[in-house]
Amino acid sequence: MGYRFTDLIDACKPEWRAYIEHDFVRQLGAATLGDASFRHYLKQDYLFLIHFARAYALAAYKSSTLADLRQAHEGLKAILDVELDLHVGFCREWGINEDDLAGLPESRATLAYTRFVLDTGNRGDLLDLHVALAPCLIGYGEIANWLNAHPATLRGEANPYDAWIAMYESDEFQGAMHAEMEWHDTRLADATPARFEALTRIFRDATRLEIDFWQMGLDQAD
Ligand SMILES: Cc1ncc(CO)c(N)n1
Protein backbone atom coordinates (compact mmCIF):
# COMPACT_ATOMS: atom_id res chain seq x y z
CA MET A 1 0.00 0.00 0.00
CA GLY A 2 1.50 3.33 -1.05
CA TYR A 3 1.56 6.55 0.95
CA ARG A 4 0.19 9.86 -0.24
CA PHE A 5 0.91 13.46 0.71
CA THR A 6 -2.25 13.68 2.82
CA ASP A 7 -0.88 10.86 4.99
CA LEU A 8 1.82 13.27 6.19
CA ILE A 9 -0.86 15.75 7.26
CA ASP A 10 -2.90 12.99 8.91
CA ALA A 11 0.20 11.88 10.84
CA CYS A 12 0.69 15.43 12.22
CA LYS A 13 -2.92 16.55 12.66
CA PRO A 14 -2.61 18.60 15.88
CA GLU A 15 0.43 20.52 14.61
CA TRP A 16 -1.08 21.00 11.14
CA ARG A 17 -4.35 22.41 12.53
CA ALA A 18 -2.43 24.66 14.97
CA TYR A 19 -0.51 26.04 11.97
CA ILE A 20 -3.43 26.48 9.55
CA GLU A 21 -5.79 27.94 12.17
CA HIS A 22 -3.25 29.97 14.13
CA ASP A 23 -4.46 33.16 15.86
CA PHE A 24 -2.38 35.21 13.42
CA VAL A 25 -4.35 33.67 10.53
CA ARG A 26 -7.71 34.07 12.28
CA GLN A 27 -7.02 37.71 13.14
CA LEU A 28 -5.77 38.43 9.62
CA GLY A 29 -8.99 36.94 8.22
CA ALA A 30 -11.22 38.85 10.62
CA ALA A 31 -9.25 42.09 10.01
CA THR A 32 -8.46 42.39 13.74
CA LEU A 33 -4.71 41.75 13.41
CA GLY A 34 -2.63 44.69 14.64
CA ASP A 35 -0.78 46.41 11.82
CA ALA A 36 2.53 46.38 13.75
CA SER A 37 2.30 42.58 13.90
CA PHE A 38 1.57 42.37 10.18
CA ARG A 39 4.46 44.71 9.38
CA HIS A 40 6.83 42.69 11.55
CA TYR A 41 5.68 39.50 9.84
CA LEU A 42 6.06 41.04 6.36
CA LYS A 43 9.63 42.08 7.05
CA GLN A 44 10.66 38.69 8.41
CA ASP A 45 8.85 36.94 5.59
CA TYR A 46 11.01 38.83 3.10
CA LEU A 47 14.09 37.27 4.70
CA PHE A 48 12.33 33.92 4.87
CA LEU A 49 11.46 33.95 1.17
CA ILE A 50 15.05 34.64 0.16
CA HIS A 51 16.23 31.56 2.06
CA PHE A 52 13.36 29.51 0.66
CA ALA A 53 14.31 30.50 -2.86
CA ARG A 54 17.81 29.20 -2.01
CA ALA A 55 16.26 25.95 -0.77
CA TYR A 56 14.45 25.46 -4.09
CA ALA A 57 17.74 26.15 -5.85
CA LEU A 58 19.21 23.39 -3.68
CA ALA A 59 16.36 21.13 -4.81
CA ALA A 60 17.30 21.93 -8.42
CA TYR A 61 20.92 21.03 -7.64
CA LYS A 62 19.82 17.74 -6.06
CA SER A 63 17.62 16.81 -9.04
CA SER A 64 18.87 14.06 -11.30
CA THR A 65 15.96 13.97 -13.75
CA LEU A 66 14.50 16.65 -15.97
CA ALA A 67 11.08 16.21 -14.30
CA ASP A 68 12.58 16.84 -10.84
CA LEU A 69 14.52 19.81 -12.13
CA ARG A 70 11.33 21.29 -13.58
CA GLN A 71 9.49 20.75 -10.27
CA ALA A 72 12.24 22.57 -8.34
CA HIS A 73 12.08 25.34 -10.95
CA GLU A 74 8.29 25.66 -10.44
CA GLY A 75 8.82 26.15 -6.71
CA LEU A 76 11.55 28.72 -7.30
CA LYS A 77 9.33 30.59 -9.79
CA ALA A 78 6.36 30.59 -7.37
CA ILE A 79 8.59 32.30 -4.79
CA LEU A 80 10.59 34.65 -7.02
CA ASP A 81 7.99 35.67 -9.61
CA VAL A 82 4.73 35.45 -7.67
CA GLU A 83 5.42 35.90 -3.99
CA LEU A 84 8.53 38.05 -3.76
CA ASP A 85 7.32 40.51 -6.42
CA LEU A 86 3.99 40.94 -4.66
CA HIS A 87 5.72 40.94 -1.30
CA VAL A 88 7.96 43.90 -2.09
CA GLY A 89 4.82 45.71 -3.31
CA PHE A 90 2.97 44.91 -0.05
CA CYS A 91 5.90 46.11 2.00
CA ARG A 92 5.86 49.41 0.10
CA GLU A 93 2.13 49.81 0.76
CA TRP A 94 2.74 49.16 4.44
CA GLY A 95 5.50 51.78 4.57
CA ILE A 96 8.50 49.44 4.39
CA ASN A 97 10.90 50.30 1.55
CA GLU A 98 13.55 48.08 -0.03
CA ASP A 99 16.40 49.75 1.89
CA ASP A 100 14.69 48.83 5.17
CA LEU A 101 14.36 45.26 3.94
CA ALA A 102 18.01 44.95 2.91
CA GLY A 103 19.30 45.80 6.40
CA LEU A 104 16.87 43.81 8.55
CA PRO A 105 18.05 41.75 11.51
CA GLU A 106 16.78 38.18 11.28
CA SER A 107 14.46 37.00 14.05
CA ARG A 108 15.20 33.73 15.81
CA ALA A 109 12.07 32.13 14.36
CA THR A 110 13.21 33.02 10.83
CA LEU A 111 16.71 31.73 11.48
CA ALA A 112 15.46 28.47 12.97
CA TYR A 113 12.98 27.65 10.24
CA THR A 114 15.03 28.58 7.19
CA ARG A 115 18.23 26.94 8.40
CA PHE A 116 16.33 23.81 9.42
CA VAL A 117 15.06 23.44 5.87
CA LEU A 118 18.46 24.10 4.30
CA ASP A 119 20.17 21.68 6.68
CA THR A 120 17.56 18.98 6.09
CA GLY A 121 18.09 19.38 2.37
CA ASN A 122 21.87 19.33 2.59
CA ARG A 123 21.92 16.28 4.83
CA GLY A 124 19.17 14.29 3.15
CA ASP A 125 17.98 13.58 -0.36
CA LEU A 126 15.55 15.37 -2.66
CA LEU A 127 12.47 13.90 -0.99
CA ASP A 128 13.63 14.95 2.49
CA LEU A 129 14.10 18.48 1.16
CA HIS A 130 10.68 18.64 -0.54
CA VAL A 131 9.01 17.35 2.64
CA ALA A 132 10.75 20.10 4.65
CA LEU A 133 9.49 22.65 2.08
CA ALA A 134 5.93 21.29 1.90
CA PRO A 135 4.33 23.08 4.88
CA CYS A 136 5.30 26.37 3.26
CA LEU A 137 3.83 26.09 -0.24
CA ILE A 138 1.03 23.66 0.57
CA GLY A 139 0.22 25.17 3.97
CA TYR A 140 -0.26 28.73 2.69
CA GLY A 141 -2.49 27.51 -0.15
CA GLU A 142 -4.57 25.64 2.41
CA ILE A 143 -4.64 28.67 4.72
CA ALA A 144 -6.12 30.83 1.94
CA ASN A 145 -8.79 28.17 1.30
CA TRP A 146 -9.51 27.75 5.01
CA LEU A 147 -9.90 31.52 5.41
CA ASN A 148 -12.32 31.65 2.49
CA ALA A 149 -14.44 28.90 4.03
CA HIS A 150 -14.44 30.52 7.49
CA PRO A 151 -17.50 32.64 8.35
CA ALA A 152 -15.48 35.23 10.33
CA THR A 153 -13.28 36.09 7.32
CA LEU A 154 -13.84 39.51 5.76
CA ARG A 155 -13.02 39.96 2.10
CA GLY A 156 -12.69 43.07 -0.03
CA GLU A 157 -12.13 46.61 1.15
CA ALA A 158 -13.38 45.81 4.64
CA ASN A 159 -10.15 43.90 5.22
CA PRO A 160 -6.74 45.62 4.88
CA TYR A 161 -5.18 42.16 4.50
CA ASP A 162 -7.41 41.16 1.58
CA ALA A 163 -4.57 41.34 -0.97
CA TRP A 164 -2.54 38.92 1.13
CA ILE A 165 -5.33 36.32 0.99
CA ALA A 166 -5.75 36.99 -2.74
CA MET A 167 -2.09 36.16 -3.39
CA TYR A 168 -2.42 32.67 -1.89
CA GLU A 169 -5.77 31.89 -3.47
CA SER A 170 -4.49 32.94 -6.93
CA ASP A 171 -4.50 30.33 -9.69
CA GLU A 172 -0.73 30.58 -9.94
CA PHE A 173 -0.15 29.82 -6.28
CA GLN A 174 -2.86 27.16 -6.04
CA GLY A 175 -1.49 25.55 -9.21
CA ALA A 176 2.02 25.39 -7.75
CA MET A 177 0.55 23.91 -4.56
CA HIS A 178 -1.29 21.14 -6.44
CA ALA A 179 1.74 20.33 -8.59
CA GLU A 180 3.80 19.97 -5.41
CA MET A 181 1.20 17.65 -3.84
CA GLU A 182 1.21 15.44 -6.92
CA TRP A 183 5.00 15.30 -6.88
CA HIS A 184 4.81 14.09 -3.26
CA ASP A 185 2.12 11.52 -4.08
CA THR A 186 4.35 9.96 -6.73
CA ARG A 187 7.41 9.91 -4.48
CA LEU A 188 5.65 8.64 -1.38
CA ALA A 189 3.91 5.79 -3.21
CA ASP A 190 6.87 3.44 -2.78
CA ALA A 191 8.19 4.65 0.61
CA THR A 192 8.68 2.00 3.29
CA PRO A 193 7.01 2.49 6.70
CA ALA A 194 10.42 3.37 8.24
CA ARG A 195 11.09 5.95 5.55
CA PHE A 196 7.60 7.40 5.96
CA GLU A 197 8.20 7.71 9.70
CA ALA A 198 11.45 9.62 9.12
CA LEU A 199 9.70 11.92 6.63
CA THR A 200 6.87 12.49 9.09
CA ARG A 201 9.41 13.75 11.62
CA ILE A 202 10.73 16.29 9.10
CA PHE A 203 7.20 17.37 8.16
CA ARG A 204 6.17 17.76 11.81
CA ASP A 205 9.26 19.82 12.68
CA ALA A 206 8.77 22.12 9.69
CA THR A 207 5.10 22.57 10.66
CA ARG A 208 6.09 23.41 14.27
CA LEU A 209 8.49 26.02 12.91
CA GLU A 210 5.66 27.52 10.82
CA ILE A 211 3.61 27.82 14.04
CA ASP A 212 6.56 29.63 15.67
CA PHE A 213 6.77 31.93 12.66
CA TRP A 214 3.13 33.06 13.10
CA GLN A 215 3.70 33.49 16.82
CA MET A 216 6.82 35.57 16.15
CA GLY A 217 4.67 37.87 13.98
CA LEU A 218 1.94 38.15 16.58
CA ASP A 219 4.43 38.88 19.39
CA GLN A 220 6.67 41.03 17.19
CA ALA A 221 9.49 38.92 18.56
CA ASP A 222 13.12 39.40 17.53
C1 LIG B 1 6.75 31.58 6.86
C2 LIG B 1 6.17 31.35 5.50
N1 LIG B 1 5.72 30.13 5.20
C3 LIG B 1 5.19 29.89 3.98
C4 LIG B 1 5.11 30.89 3.04
C5 LIG B 1 4.50 30.62 1.68
O1 LIG B 1 5.44 30.65 0.69
C6 LIG B 1 5.61 32.15 3.40
N2 LIG B 1 5.57 33.19 2.53
N3 LIG B 1 6.11 32.36 4.62
Mean pLDDT: 95
Task: Report the C-alpha radius of gyration, rounded.
Answer: 17 Å
* Secondary structure: number of strands: 0
What class do helices, strands and sheet pairing give?
mainly alpha
Q: Could you give the distance between the termini? A: 45 Å
The largest β sheet comes out as: none
So how many helices?
11
Helix content: over 70%
Bound molecules: 4-amino-5-hydroxymethyl-2-methylpyrimidine
CATH architecture assignment name: Up-down Bundle
- For this structure, what is the CATH class? Mainly Alpha
Low-confidence stretches: none
CATH topology: Heme Oxygenase, Chain A
- How would the global form be characterised? globular
The H/E string reads HHHHHHHHHHH
Enzyme class: hydrolase
Protein name: Aminopyrimidine aminohydrolase
Pathway: Cofactor biosynthesis; thiamine diphosphate biosynthesis
Keywords: Hydrolase, Thiamine biosynthesis
Describe this protein's structure.
- The protein has 222 residues and is mainly α.
- The protein has a single domain, classed as Up-down Bundle (Heme Oxygenase, Chain A).
- Helix content is 79%, strand content 0%.
- It has eleven helices and no strands.
- It has helices at residues 5-11, 13-20, 23-30, 35-61, 66-93, 98-102, 108-123, 126-149, 162-169, 171-188, 193-219.
- α7 (108-123) crosses α8 (126-149) and α7 (108-123) packs antiparallel against α11 (193-219).
- The longest helix is centred in the middle third of the chain and has 28 residues, at 66-93.
- The protein is globular, with a radius of gyration of 17 Å.
- The termini are far apart.
- The relative contact order is 0.20.
- The model has no long low-confidence stretch (mean pLDDT 95).
- 4-amino-5-hydroxymethyl-2-methylpyrimidine (HMH) is lined by residues 45, 48-49, 83, 136-137, 140, 210, 213.
